[in-house]
Amino acid sequence: MVLEPEARILGEPEMYFRAASDVSLTCVSTGRSSFVFWYLDDIRVSEEGDDRVGIEKSVRGAERVDRLLIGNATEFDSGVYTCLPTNAAKATVTVHIMPGEDGGKC
Question: Quick check: 83 pLDDT over 70?
């Protein structure tokens, strides 16, 4: 039996965070993906030029784990995030950054 490569973002399809909190999105993909790209509303997310953004990559057996980290989130970080491996269908999650002063997940 051959399994098709797939990607999924851990958690609910919609996530809510307070402004000024740290956002962490985790994409798990199967198969031999060379790269995984993150997008926010169809614009590629990059670590370059933004100290608040980080991308961590690791491999666990047959799975690749890519974590997108956004520090000190603002309302401009709200939107549809897409995890797109080079060899699998995309996975998406909608992130809402809610007004608040203390940070943290809603």
Answer: yes
Question: Is the pLDDT confidence value at 36 over 90?
Answer: yes
- DSSP class of residue 72 equals S
The domain spans of the chain are: 7-98
Residues in CB range of 41: below 8 A, 6 or more apart: 79, 80
Q: Where are the beta strands (DSSP E) in the chain?
A: 7-9, 14-18, 23-30, 36-40, 43-44, 53-60, 63-70, 79-85, 91-98
**Gap between the Cα atoms of 75 and 14, Å rounded:** 15
Judge contact between 7 and 91, C-beta under 8 A.
yes
CATH 3.40.50.11270 assigned to 7-98:
no
